[in-house]
Specification:
heterodimer, A: 270 residues, alpha+beta, 4-stranded antiparallel beta sheet, two-stranded antiparallel sheet, 55% helix, 7% strand, B: 253 residues, 5-stranded mixed beta sheet, 5-stranded antiparallel beta sheet, globular
């Protein structure tokens, strides 16, 4: 007998789904090609200038025997992972980030820049179009908007405790996003991602001539480069949490709903 | 149980996917067609960055308080050829900078001749493609003055900057279009931070083209050639790194 399931409303709109996957691909390529670019000079500075003789607040140290990451005066041994690692042919490499984390996998600054600057265009247009469309169809206002009550520390604390108990939809209002989700989505879409574009542009010498204020608002070219790197780290953190919560909340159902748009809550594990 | 298996499959899939992704990216990276696709971004960067400013917008200038304590040298630190060393021993008094090619009046300038012309001093930020920056004070002759004397022909579209240094047996060179050539901050520099330009930074003459990355700032200049096209220079991509290393000719980002 045919099950007369009433069609559920779409969980994710088409623009949201297209953007989600285009953006996921872009960020993956941008992060990995960005690490190639970082490998060319694995030191981060604050201010307008910074080169080898200047003080770096963070740096990767490399030698044939060990690798380390230094933040301020504190060193962390990263031998085997960062600054000193074995490539697929069993040779010790002393580039900062290892082959599995970079595009291309063997160091080429020129190729890394090509990938990075090409996908930066797709990423930027994608983000802009998604923002415009999502304001237009009220996805932002209806689903992601931070309500006044969301800012109450007690409400955030309650949602945090629910997360720890793996209850992601304790106050499920028909599949709506919880407070921490809304904060992180709004933070990533309207803060971190735009800052990645702006700090990227702020490193460009031609943009410095066109829009000198852009470099100034970040406190100089090297500060913009540092913020660009920190933003990348935040996006990796977001991705990891995104993956953990996905695995805990039902990877198949949620991934499928981000592809087909439909939520099939009752048919989990099929 | 089902969930566990699901997760395990998922993780396995992710690991497989990551491995496939890596070799896939490397395969794409080796594909000339894909490289050409990626390189289309250069045209976008070039046209958009040119359109955003008034085309003669100046790069930021700084004060002596902002100078880098040491100005890092990169690339060739000494051409170390017989003729270069001989000229260096004479304080480059015999150095000549030729302006030739598609010009009505080819020129050859001695260092002294260049120093006696009107000068421009600018404190600017040098941005290396590798990511570091150094702020330095440069003094030199605006390139426009040399081009006005040589009188570019109508057919000239690019300037090729020939250098005394070689890397891996190939002579270094660079090129710009005429917009950057006539830009007020584009100078043939012979002083850095109030001192004679050090050998490691390009003595006796170095191009400054402030709105682009460091590899465009050719050192050890011997000649400036006006050309209609870059096709027959070097491998045709407009510069040493462009030819050997896939760097973009337009280095505004």
């Amino acid at each position: 007998m045919k099950n007369s399931k009433t069609p559920k409303p779409m969980r994710h709109r088409l623009t949201t789904r297209i953007w989600h996957w285009v953006n996921a691909l872009c960020l993956l390529v941008l992060i990995m090609s960005g690490l190639t670019i970082f490998n060319a000079h694995p030191r981060l500075y604050w201010g307008e200038y910074g080169a080898n003789d200047d003080y770096a607040w963070a740096a990767v140290g490399s030698s044939q025997t060990k690798g380390y990451v230094r933040f301020g005066e504190t060193r962390f041994d990263t031998t085997g992972y960062i600054g000193n690692w074995e490539d697929r042919n069993g040779n010790i490499q002393t580039w900062a980030f290892p082959d599995w984390a970079t595009i291309p996998s063997s160091y080429s600054l020129a190729d890394g820049r090509r990938w990075h600057l090409f996908f930066a265009w797709i990423f930027s247009f994608g983000l802009a179009l998604f923002m415009i469309r999502s304001l237009w169809n009220r996805h932002i206002q209806n689903d992601l908007h931070l309500r006044r009550g969301d800012w109450r520390p007690s409400a955030i604390w309650q949602d945090f405790r629910n997360h720890l108990k793996l209850r992601f939809h304790a106050d499920d209002r028909d599949g709506s996003y919880n407070i921490i989700q809304r904060f992180s989505y709004i933070g990533v879409i309207f803060l971190v991602l735009p800052i990645m574009i702006l700090t990227g542009l702020a490193m460009s010498p031609a943009m410095d001539a066109n829009w000198p204020w852009l470099t100034d608002i970040f406190g100089g070219r090297q500060s913009a480069r540092s913020i660009h790197f920190i933003g990348m780290a935040l996006l990796v953190l977001f991705f990891l949490v995104h993956m953990i919560t996905l695995l805990l909340a039902g990877p198949w159902r949620l991934t499928r709903s981000m592809i087909t748009g439909r939520d099939t809550k009752e048919s989990e594990n099929d | 149980m089902t969930r566990l298996l699901t997760r395990r499959t998922m993780l396995g899939g992710a690991a497989l996917g990551a491995g496939g992704l890596l070799s896939g990216c490397d395969a794409l990276n080796r594909s000339p067609a894909f490289q050409n696709l990626l390189a289309t971004a250069e045209a976008g960067n070039f046209h958009v960055q040119r359109a955003l400013g008034d085309r003669m917008e100046l790069a930021s200038e700084y004060t002596t308080a902002d100078l880098s304590p040491t100005f890092r040298a990169n690339g060739t630190r000494n051409p170390d050829t017989q003729s270069y060393n001989a000229s260096a021993a004479r304080g480059f008094s015999d150095w000549q900078l030729r302006v030739f090619g598609l010009v009505s009046k080819p020129q050859s300038f001695s260092l002294a001749a260049l120093q006696s012309m009107p000068q421009r001093t600018q404190i600017t930020r040098h941005d290396c493609v590798e990511g570091w920056s150094a702020i330095g004070q440069w003094t030199g002759v605006p390139l426009k003055l040399l081009l006005d004397l040589a009188q570019l022909r109508e057919s000239a579209s690019f300037l090729v900057f020939h250098c005394a240094d070689s890397l891996g047996g190939r002579p270094y060179y660079e090129s710009t279009d005429l917009l950057d050539a006539f830009h007020p901050q584009t100078i043939i520099a012979h002083r850095l931070n109030g001192q004679t330009l050090p050998i490691e930074n390009g003595a006796p003459l170095r191009l400054r083209v402030e709105r682009q990355l460091g590899y465009k700032h050719a050192k050890y200049l011997t000649g400036i050639e006006a050309v209609a096209s870059l096709d027959n220079i070097g491998e045709g991509k407009g510069g040493y790194w462009e030819d050997v290393g896939n760097y973009e000719w337009y280095a505004g980002i």
